[in-house]
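QA checklist item 7 of 12: single-chain prediction sanity check.
[x] sequence parsed
[x] length recorded as 199
[x] structure emitted
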Amino acid sequence: MADDEEEMGEEENTNNLGTYEGERNENNERHGFGKAKLPNGDTYEGQYQNGKRYGTGTYRFLNGARYIGDYMKNKRHGQGTFHYPDGSKYEGEWNDNVREGHGTYTYPNNDTYVGEWKNHQRHGKGTYTYAATKAQYIGTWNNGKRQGPGEMQFAHYKYVGRFHDNYPKGKGKFVFKNGYQQNGEYHITSTVKKLFVFI
C-alpha cells in the first residue's frame, strides 16, 4: 500500500458484530481480553473496554494485512505496527486511526523513511533512504513531498539547499568529495529533474 493512501476500515460497531469469545462487563459488553471474528472475515485478538477495542491487540485483515499495537475506542491510537499486503510496513505513532507523529516506513523495494508523519503522509523532519543507491534525503517534508531546507546525499556529492515540490529551488550548493563546491540559485528544469530522477 502506498504510504499516502487511506487505511482499511475496521468495522466492529455495527449491528452484526460477528462472533466473540472473551470477557464481558456487567452490561454484557466486550470488556477485558477477547477474540472476535467480524462478518467480513477480519479477526481481532486483544483488549476491550466497554464494547470497544481499547488497549493492545492484533487485528488481521482478510487480505493479509495486519496491525499489532495500541487501540483507543476502536481506533489505532498510540504505538503500533501495520503490515500491508504489498510487503510494506509502518512502525510508529498513530492518532485517531492515521499515521501521525514519529514513525518508520519500509517500502516494498526496501526504501525507508524515518521521521515525522501527519495524516498518513511524510510531514515535518525526516530521512528517506533509497535502498538501491544508498542515496539519502535529510530534511523537511510537507504533505509527502520534499519542501523547505534539506540535504540530498549521493555517492560522490551532495546538494544542500531548499526544496520545492520535491526538487531544488532557490539558493543552494553542490558539494563534491574533492572539496569543490558549486553555489547558485536553482530552478526546476529538466536538467535538475534528471539529477533527482529517482525522487
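[x] summary fact logged: The chain has a mean pLDDT of 90.
[ ] second reviewer sign-off
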